[in-house]
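Subject line: Sequence and fold of a protein, written as structure tokens
Area: Proteins and the way their chains fold up in space.
Start of record: The labelled sequence and token lines come straight after this line.
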Amino acid sequence: MRTIILLLQKEFRQIFRNKALLPILFVAPIMQLLILPLAADYEVKNINLTIVDHDHSDYSHKLISKITASGYFRLAGNFNAYKEALQQIEGDASDLILEIPQGFERDLIRENAQKVFVAVDAINGVKAGLGGAYLSRIIADFNGELRMKWMQPGLANGGIDIASSNWYNVHMEYTHYMVPGILALLVTLVGGLMSALNIVIEKEIGTIEQINVSPIRKYHFIIGKLIPFWILGMFIFTVGLFVIARLAYGIFPMGSIPALYLFVAVYLVALLGFGLLISTYCNNQQQAMSVAFFFILIFNLMSGLFTPIDSMPGWAQVMAKFNPVAYLIDVMRMVVLKGSGLKEIKTQLLAICAFALVLNSWAVVNYRKRS
């Protein structure tokens, strides 16, 4: 124990003497957690819409007013010909075209049916899909209002009334969904990258030779490298969860906080073991950064942070089972939003314990200490 304490003193002094490292550890995660959830928003607004109105009737004007009043669309132009409107899309000045045919109001009243044409710029698939869906929903609501208006007075109160309830995210705020995932991402970046550079720095400055000839066992050395960044990772997680998420976004965990801390503690052991394992294979910081960034980038993209794992191909879903970041993001959202406890996250906890055991054992075995 005395050997480990001395190693910890050495590590903390080495960390706090590095003036370039301190902003990366403490300032960067806070700034990223403040900015990223606001930028990573899939709720598309200000979609540029071009109107081609061949009818110029009262109903067509009401439909256009309803669309522009929704808050999702911004009127980019109103033309008399479809070719003119198409030039707006080709010039990247418009995202959608709504063409209202001639006789729109007449056919609605006489035949109780009419069609409109929607052209979507699908270069940005997400914006195109959501924009088309928003527009279809608004037109459907407009159609429903007309049907209710034309119904007989005695039947006006008929139909199906739907009462909905949003569980876990009552106000459907996208930041409540993104903040737990982005906090998990930041803990991963800090812990994974910093631990991957740890042993490599010792090799570059030459102090690794002094450690190799000292009476220190391999597991002492790995534990001494792991604990400081484990403490820093827990500190960053605490600040992000109870200071930034609480004050900036009004998010507070609905579930068991001890269960969440237990999982994060084991996760950091697994992640730091992975970083130290990379460090034992590399000879300089450039190699360690390249290897660590390669794996962490794959982990983050396949973690379910932006794209649900269930929507991925079958082979990607199998790979996600070997992705520790996916387990952390899943548990974060379960505890913070759903109110889950230790019983609900036990499967993920067992999986991350296995990661921690395998990766740290591998790091200890792979570290070659020459006396």
